[in-house]
Every structure is written in C-alpha cells, then in structure tokens.
C-alpha cells in the first residue's frame, strides 16, 4: 500500500481518534481491483512520478485504510465518506484548488430523489437508494464506491483537446472525508490526494464541429464550381447581346426595368445548372474512386482502433477523423438520392450503404444527446441508462467495411452466389437440424450417466454434437464414455458422423460448389458471346445518360435565349423584323449546339463499336 508517493494531505482528525492514525489511499488494492473490474489496465503514456494514473473509460474503485504512523499497522476503512473533486488542471503545473462554489457545482446533486450523476463523475453501481449530505454530496461506502468519470461540457475536464497526437489527460485533486458521516462524531478523517486520468475521448459537440468544418469545405468547393459555371453562361449571354448590336443604354434600361425578371431567370438557370452538376458528379466514375479511397482509409482507422495501444493513445484523433469521414458518406447518399430518387433504393448495395450511414448517424446522435446534458430529475437518470444501453450501436461502424464490396465485381459475384445458394440449401439445412435434434435426444437419454460433462443436459448435448461435427476431440468423448462403462457409444458416434458430416455437410458444400460453377460458366458465355449487337443494352444506357445531359443543357440554353429575347423586346426602338431575325438566329444556335452534342455521342459510340469489333476478331483468330 502506498501513502507518501501519491501526494497525500492529511487535514486533521477528531479528538476521538487513536493517536498516530491517519486515513491513507490504498493504491495497490485499488490497482488490483481496477484490473479485475475492467479486465485490463492501461498506464499513462506520459506518467508523472508519484501520481497514480488511470484510464478515463475504466471504472475506478478506490480503497482506503486507517494507517498507524507509530506501530505501522493498518486496517480497512469501512466508514461512509464523501468523494469530492476539489481541484484539477490540464497539466501538473496548472493544478489549482477550486472555490467552495465550484466544488458544490461540480460534485453536488440538485435532486436527491432521481439524479445520480455529478458534472465530473457518477456511480457505476448506483444503489436503489443512496444518501446525501446537507450540501448535496453523495455518500459512498465499500458496498457502492465504483466511480465512472463523466466530465460533461460545463465541467473543468469537459471538452479537452490534445496538446499533441496523444489523447488529452487531466489531473484531479480528490478529497475523501467522513466529517459529515462518521459513525463516531469524535473521530473525523479528511484526505486529499492526486489522480492522473488519461485517454479522454472526443467530445461529441466538438465532433459535430469537425463535421461542420468538413461540410463547409465541400460546400465551398461546390459553390466555387457552380459560380464558375454560371459566370461562364452569363458571359455567353453578354457576348450574344453584344453580337446582336445592343448598346450600353439598352442594357441600362433592361437593368432598371426588368430586375426581378432577370433575377428570377438567373436563379432558375442556376438551379438547373446545379442539378446538372450534381448529375455529372454522380455519374462520374471518379466519385466511386474517391469514395473507395475514403472507405479504405476508414477501414485502416477502424483496424487501428482494434489495437489497445493505439486506442489508448490516439483515440481522440481517430474519432475526429471518423467524424469527418462520416460527412463524405452522407454527402454521397444525399447526392445519389437527389439524382435517382426512389430508384436509389432498388439496388441492394445502395440499401446497404444507406443502412450503414443511418446507423453511423444514429450512433453519433446518441453520443451527442448523452453529452448535451440539460436533463434533470428522474429523466436524467433514465436517459443516461437508456443511452448507455444503446451504446452498442457502435458495432455498426464495422459495417462500413462492406462498402468496399461494391467497388470489386469479383467480391460481388461471390457474395451474390452465396446468397443464391442458400435458397436451394434450405431443405438441406432443415434436414441437418432435424437429425441433430434426433441424435441429441438419443445421446442425452443413453449417455448422460457415463459422461455427464458432455451429455448432462440438452444444451450440453447440442454443443457436444456441434463439436463432433467438426471432428474435434470426438475420440476423447468416446474414451470418456468407454472408461465409464459405455463402449457402445462408438456405434452412435460413427452413425452421427456419417449422416451429418459425410452426407449432409458434404451435400451442402456440393450445392455451393455447383452454384459457383454455374456462375463461372455464365460469365464465360457472356464473354464469348459479347459483340456489338449484344452490347446494345449498354450503349442504350450510355445514350440515355447523354440524352439526359443534352436535355439539361438545352433547358439552360433556352432560359438564356428567352432572357435575351426579353431584353431585345424591351427596347421600343427595335423593329419587329430585327426581333424575328434575333429569334431565328438564337434558334439556329440552339439547334447547332444540340446537333453537335448528338454528333459527339455518335462518334464516341462508333469508336467503341470499332474497338469491340477488332477485339472480338483478334480473340477469334487467337482461338482458331
């Protein structure tokens, strides 16, 4: 047990206490109990000499002793006591003592009937009923003294940021006293000691800030691109009006008289151009490559978080990166839903992506609501328990690894073949489980006395038969029953292995292998029969995308042409003949632009057909 090495401060004892005794912090027992409760222990990356260090997310269960300074004997401190945070700081040199008002704010409870958490810490094993002092401090005892750190935003240890790449840490000054709870009013002990907590996580509100910053960067890039495109279209309109001989006075009259019409036309054109830009982004293969890189980077961060050393030291930074990457997934899903509408959910891979993004947002929302605070009375305690239970939604972050499947056609083929195989294997699975339960009843009734460890009840028997299905230690099971007077178990074991393993399980694998062979055969047939005539469906889909872009471009051109016509007609000095000539000229320009787009698409299609023809011809020559 440690006393002097943890910077203890004994503030005094009552006259009824034994001479030469003091309250001390039992560090050794506390470390052992902390390791037992959490099944692990992480030491500080940057430890301070003489200050005990604990991981923030671990349960902290302190132990105290009554130490004799004269005889050196010590006994366990069994009295009730108050646990207060009376000081703290980001670094050892910045530690300060809190004022009486701050101590009340950080440690006291306003509602003694329902609230069980302070701003800094809470009970991990909160009893059904607990006592409070007159000032609202919680009374702790050996039966319920497990502490879990909270550090809400309005606490001194809330929303910490790392000084370097390592997770932030904090130094606490803890005061333990039985002054208001002593069973004997004449023996009072008060102890102050330092604690070093490390591995503070990212505050969800700050995570939301990182998401907003990432979203701001994406919005800035989109706005710059949209503004540049609209400016080019505006310049094209201005050049058209200059080409038609409209002078500066006519433009001034148009600006003064038709400002609202001009603004409305420009906004409508910008929205159409925005849709076209989003359409091009979604259809561009570069988006899939960018998302694939994001998924691979996210996968590397998830794998890094499985290592305890990385999680303890850089968990804050990895959580910040995870918040930023979530924005990319949300933007991708929103863009595709805007462009494709309901058809987005017709593909199973899109449904999987949407489910992963939704569960990630749900996890972030739960942590954000939990850290927001502002709840009081019974609702605070109930909400904390519910959110603590729903924290299991973090496991859905691992589903992001499945997003990488849609970028690899081979993985998609394997997964789809497995899913299709389960339809034809349903009868085999039913038969396997049926015979499994039949043999379970047989082994349970006949060998429960010779081998109760494996066949003592129905659940042990099922587990044993599953183990035998893998041929794991089946000989040991036979020898155990043989030594206990049941050697005839070998016949039942042999029959079970032949029926379940050599028949049904091999049949299961045979169906799966047959489906893979069918899939490979179909793929080869598609490659051998592939020709320009067969690729008509692919070319039609490409032509449809080109036509959508052409229609979008034509609508934008028509809007600016109408604007130019309104501008031309606003001048009373222009003759009717000139207006007709301008209209005809603009229609010819639009028709020429449309024909040029069709010519480009047809030329691209012709190039693909020629390339495919020579590829098929070279392949057929090679086969001959």
Largest sheet: 7 strands, mixed
Q: Name the helix and strand elements from N-terminus to C-terminus, one letter apiece.
A: EEHEEEEEHEEEEEHHHHHHHHHHHHHHH
Number of strands: 12
Number of helical segments? 17
Structural class: alpha+beta
Radius of gyration over all CA atoms, rounded? 37 Å
How many angstroms separate the termini?
Answer: 87 Å
Low-confidence stretches: 1-6, 246-257, 375-381, 531-539, 570-574
Structure description:
The protein is α+β, with helices and mostly antiparallel strands. Helices cover 60% and strands 9% of the residues. It has helices at 27-38, 100-107, 204-243, 248-257, 259-283, 285-304, 308-340, 348-372, 377-389, 409-424, 426-447, 452-455, 458-469, 474-483, 489-528, 536-569, 576-623, and strands at 9-13, 21-25, 53-55, 64-68, 74-76, 81-89, 96-97, 121-123, 139-140, 147-149, 169-177, 189-198. The strands form three sheets. Strands 1, 3, 6, 7, 9, 11 and 12 form a seven-stranded mixed beta sheet that branches. Strands 2-4-5 form a three-stranded antiparallel beta sheet, with no helix packed on it. The protein has a two-stranded antiparallel sheet with strand order 8-10. α3 crosses α16. The longest helix has 48 residues, at 576-623. Mean pLDDT is 75; it is low at 1-6, 246-257, 375-381, 531-539 and 570-574.
SSE topology:
Blueprint: E1 9-13, E2 21-25, H1 27-38, E3 53-55, E4 64-68, E5 74-76, E6 81-89, E7 96-97, H2 100-107, E8 121-123, E9 139-140, E10 147-149, E11 169-177, E12 189-198, H3 204-243, H4 248-257, H5 259-283, H6 285-304, H7 308-340, H8 348-372, H9 377-389, H10 409-424, H11 426-447, H12 452-455, H13 458-469, H14 474-483, H15 489-528, H16 536-569, H17 576-623
Helix pairs in contact: 3-7, 3-16, 5-7, 5-16, 6-7, 7-8, 10-15, 11-13, 11-15, 16-17
């Amino acid at each position: 047990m440690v006393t002097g090495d943890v910077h203890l401060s004994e503030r005094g004892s009552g006259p009824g206490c034994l001479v030469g005794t003091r309250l001390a912090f039992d560090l050794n027992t506390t470390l052992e109990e902390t390791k037992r409760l959490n099944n692990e222990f992480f030491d500080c990356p940057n430890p301070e000499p003489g200050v005990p260090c604990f991981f923030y997310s671990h349960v902290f269960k302190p132990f105290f002793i009554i130490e004799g300074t004269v005889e050196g004997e010590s006994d366990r401190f069994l009295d009730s006591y108050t646990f207060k945070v009376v000081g703290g700081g980001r670094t050892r040199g910045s530690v300060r003592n809190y004022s009486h008002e701050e101590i009340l704010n950080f440690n006291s409870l306003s509602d003694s009937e329902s609230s069980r958490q302070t701003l800094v810490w809470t009970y991990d094993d909160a009893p059904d009923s607990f006592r409070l002092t007159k000032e609202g401090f919680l009374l702790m005892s050996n039966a319920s003294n497990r502490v879990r750190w909270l550090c809400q935003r309005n606490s001194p240890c809330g929303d910490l940021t790392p000084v370097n790449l390592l997770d932030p840490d904090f130094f606490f000054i803890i005061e333990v006293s039985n002054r208001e709870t002593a069973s004997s009013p004449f023996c009072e002990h008060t102890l102050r000691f330092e604690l070093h907590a490390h591995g503070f996580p990212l505050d969800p509100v700050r995570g939301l800030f990182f998401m907003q910053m990432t979203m701001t960067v994406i919005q800035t890039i989109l706005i710059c691109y949209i503004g540049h495109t609209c400016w080019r279209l505006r310049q094209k309109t201005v050049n058209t009006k200059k080409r038609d001989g409209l002078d500066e006075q006519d433009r001034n009259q148009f600006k003064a008289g038709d400002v609202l019409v001009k603004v409305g036309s420009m906004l409508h054109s910008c929205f159409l151009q925005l849709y076209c830009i989003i359409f091009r982004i979604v259809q561009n293969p570069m988006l899939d490559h960018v998302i694939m890189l994001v998924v691979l980077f996210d996968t590397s961060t998830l794998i890094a978080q499985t290592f305890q050393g990385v999680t303890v030291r850089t968990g804050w930074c990895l959580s910040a990166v995870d918040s930023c990457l979530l924005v990319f997934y949300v933007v991708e899903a929103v863009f595709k839903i805007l462009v494709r509408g309901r058809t987005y959910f017709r593909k199973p891979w899109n449904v999987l992506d949407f489910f992963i993004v939704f569960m990630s947002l749900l996890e972030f929302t739960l942590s954000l609501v939990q850290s927001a605070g502002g709840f009081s009375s019974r609702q605070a305690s109930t909400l904390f328990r519910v959110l603590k239970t729903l924290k299991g939604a973090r496991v859905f972050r691992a589903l992001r690894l499945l997003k990488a499947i849609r970028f690899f056609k081979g993985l998609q083929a394997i997964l789809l073949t497995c899913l299709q195989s389960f339809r034809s294997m349903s009868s085999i699975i039913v038969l396997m489980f049926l015979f499994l339960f039949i043999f379970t009843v047989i082994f349970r009734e006949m060998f429960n006395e010779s081998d109760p460890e494996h066949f003592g009840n129905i659940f042990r028997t099922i587990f044993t038969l599953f183990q035998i299905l893998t041929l794991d230690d089946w000989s040991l099971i036979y020898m155990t029953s043989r030594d206990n007077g049941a050697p005839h178990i070998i016949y039942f074991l042999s029959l079970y292995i032949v029926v379940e393993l050599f028949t049904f399980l091999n049949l299961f694998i045979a169906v799966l292998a047959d489906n893979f062979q069918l899939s490979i055969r179909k793929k080869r047939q598609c490659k051998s029969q592939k020709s320009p005539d067969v690729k008509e469906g692919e070319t039609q889909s490409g032509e449809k995308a080109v036509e959508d872009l052409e229609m979008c471009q034509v609508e934008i051109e028509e809007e600016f042409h109408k604007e130019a016509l309104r501008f031309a007609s606003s001048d009373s000095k222009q003759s009717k003949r000139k207006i007709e000539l301008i209209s005809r000229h603009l229609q010819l320009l639009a028709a020429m632009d449309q024909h040029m787009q069709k010519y480009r698409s047809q030329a691209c299609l012709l190039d693909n057909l020629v390339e495919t023809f020579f590829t098929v011809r070279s392949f057929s020559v090679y086969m001959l």
